Amino acid sequence: MAVVMGGHVRVGLEDNLYYDTQRLASNAGLIERIVNLAKAAEREIATPARSVAMNG
Description:
Layout (H helix, E strand, L loop, with lengths): L26 H14 L7 H8 L1
């Protein structure tokens, strides 16, 4: 919902250990999922430098 509303998204295993009820998640997989959702919503992904600048 944050992606659709123009907000920022934080991704990590500390938030989601599972993709679904049977599969363990990975950081790479969680990031890939958010990137795909952002692209579908026509949102730009922040570069590492931009991310640091935004979080100061």
